[in-house]
């Protein structure tokens, strides 16, 4: 008997072959990549990634429970992004620039807590400049970084007391002979913007919400879009009062005034817990501290 396997479903004496493409395998794989709906209690902190996109969304997240859902595409983008992050961090280490990867930082203003984790802190071995690095994976590399990305890295800069900030865009379309990677330096003025956003959030009175983004078209990916623009909340939302705006300006200056102390704290933490390049930090401590 010959060992030829026939793929098919038998119906009586006739055999129907499966479709060669087997579409059902594709659909099973896609549904397997989709995450289960995730129900979360209200957030307890404002995380850099969401806060930098929209402080109002971040505040609503701290007041209400929500359900999120990961699509098959977002699962894949996240996984690809994680691999690229690891590669770039390893490369920064091999190049002798890395001081710390995945640095977790936090700041509490009044009763409001802000947290974030930056991809890397590096040191220039010639000038001893410290710099915060955020890695972004993308398709085509844009001509300039998104404003929300610039605010996100400014958030880290503020928390760490480091004014030099760089966004490394890395294309997923690798590119030959060199991968497509572009560095953008972020203007320090974003630090002041973020400090004011934090101050407004910390000074909010009952039911007040930060302003909406300037245009609804910027809200395309926000799951709260219809509720937010129609004021449908579980409470009666209020706009910012004049006293909140006034208090915020004072508080934002106080936040900025903590930057020198924060820089010192960051350097001490690196000296205590990191093994990467700390000889440079130790040797040139006072220069690096006062830059
Ligand atoms: S809809 Fe727009 S303004 Fe409202 S919370 Fe979402 S991103 Fe912010």
Overall tally of domains? 1
- Provide the β-strand percentage band: 15-25%
Distance between the termini: 83 Å
Query: What helical percentage do the residues reach?
Result: 40-55%
* SS summary, helix count: 11
Low-confidence stretches: 1-8
CATH topology: Lambda Exonuclease, Chain A
Give a brief description.
The chain has 291 residues and is α+β, with helices and mostly antiparallel strands. 42% of the residues lie in helices and 21% in strands.
Structure description:
There is one protein chain. The chain has 291 residues and is an alpha+beta fold. It has a single domain, classed as Lambda Exonuclease, Chain A. Helix content is 42%, strand content 21%. The protein has 11 helices and 10 strands. The strands form 3 sheets. Strands 4, 6, 7, 8, 9 and 10 form a 6-stranded mixed sheet that branches. A two-stranded antiparallel ribbon has the order 1-2. A two-stranded antiparallel sheet has the order 3-5. Strand 7 and strand 8 form a beta hairpin. Helix 1 crosses helix 4 and helix 6 crosses helix 8. The longest helix has 23 residues. The N terminus is likely disordered. The structure holds iron/sulfur cluster. Iron/sulfur cluster binds next to helix 3 and helix 7.
Lay out the secondary structure.
Layout: E1 9-11, E2 14-16, H1 23-33, E3 38-40, E4 46-47, H2 48-51, H3 55-63, E5 66-68, H4 72-94, E6 98-109, E7 112-123, E8 130-138, H5 147-160, E9 165-171, E10 181-186, H6 189-203, H7 225-229, H8 242-257, H9 259-273, H10 278-283, H11 285-289
Helix pairs in contact: 1-4, 5-6, 6-8
């Amino acid at each position: 008997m010959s060992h030829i396997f026939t793929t098919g479903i038998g119906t009586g004496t006739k055999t129907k072959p499966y479709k060669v493409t087997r579409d059902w395998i594709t659909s099973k794989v896609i549904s397997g990549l989709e995450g289960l709906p995730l129900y979360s209690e209200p957030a307890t902190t404002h995380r850099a990634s969401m806060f930098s996109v929209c402080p109002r969304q971040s505040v609503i997240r701290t007041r209400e429970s929500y359900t999120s859902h990961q699509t098959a595409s977002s699962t894949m983008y996240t996984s690809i992004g994680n691999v690229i992050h690891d590669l770039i961090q390893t490369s920064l280490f091999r190049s002798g620039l890395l001081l710390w990867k995945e640095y977790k930082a936090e700041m509490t203003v009044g009763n409001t807590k802000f947290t974030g984790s930056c991809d890397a802190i590096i040191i220039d071995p010639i000038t001893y400049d410290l710099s915060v690095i955020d890695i972004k994976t993308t398709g085509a590399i844009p001509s300039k970084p998104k404003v929300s990305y610039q605010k996100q890295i400014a958030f880290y800069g503020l928390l760490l007391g480091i004014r030099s900030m760089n966004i490394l865009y890395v294309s997923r379309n690798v590119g030959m002979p060199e991968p497509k990677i572009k560095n953008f330096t972020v203007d320090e003025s974003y630090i002041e913007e973020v400090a004011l956003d934090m101050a407004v959030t910390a000074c909010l009175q009952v039911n007040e919400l930060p302003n909406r983004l300037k245009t609804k078209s910027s809200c395309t990916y926000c799951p709260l879009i219809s509720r937010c623009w129609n004021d449908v909340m579980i409470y009666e939302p209020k706009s910012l009062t004049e006293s909140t705006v006034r208090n915020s300006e004072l508080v934002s200056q106080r936040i900025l005034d903590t930057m020198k102390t924060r820089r010192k704290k960051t350097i001490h933490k690196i000296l205590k817990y990191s093994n990467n390049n700390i000889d440079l930090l130790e040797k040139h401590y006072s220069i690096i501290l006062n830059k």
